[in-house]
Design brief:
alpha+beta; Alpha-Beta Plaits; chaperone; UreE_N_sf
């Protein structure tokens, strides 16, 4: 939506991540500034070493997070909030824009273990390593 509440279609040749403050140049010469909508979040605070442990637990659950120095932002979730408080975090609700980290693999990229042939088998003792023959 534009600043006056009107809608427009953004048709890019490829997907692009747009962040708060980015601008899009229009063919007419104007610029459309990206303004992130506020959403209900939790501000997670703790001492430096505790905050690192909390970040580990959030990452272990593959939750989107935004790290702002001494605070971690996550989407509101009462179950996760209870876990964080149990781990010693101070949590406060906030309504603000959310721009989570993209991660090492650039977003929705996954590394599933699968086979491209008819060689399906169980991964028992070798734990998924493929240092054996499928012959």
């Amino acid at each position: 939506m534009d600043g006056d509440g009107g809608e427009f279609l953004l048709d890019l040749p490829q997907a692009a991540r747009l962040a708060e403050g980015d601008g899009l140049a229009l063919a007419s010469g104007g610029i459309v500034r990206v303004v992130a909508a506020p959403e209900p979040l939790l501000e997670v605070r703790a001492g430096a070493s505790s905050l690192a442990q909390l970040a580990y637990h959030l990452g272990n659950r593959h939750l989107p997070v935004q790290i702002l120095g001494d605070v971690i932002l996550i989407r509101q979730d009462h179950v996760i909030e209870a876990m964080l408080i149990g781990l010693g975090a101070e949590c406060r609700t906030a309504l603000r824009p959310f721009s989570p980290e993209q991660g090492a693999y650039g977003g929705g990229h996954s590394h599933d273990h699968h086979h491209h042939d008819d060689d399906a088998h169980a991964h028992g003792a070798h734990g998924g390593r493929h240092d054996h023959s499928h012959g």
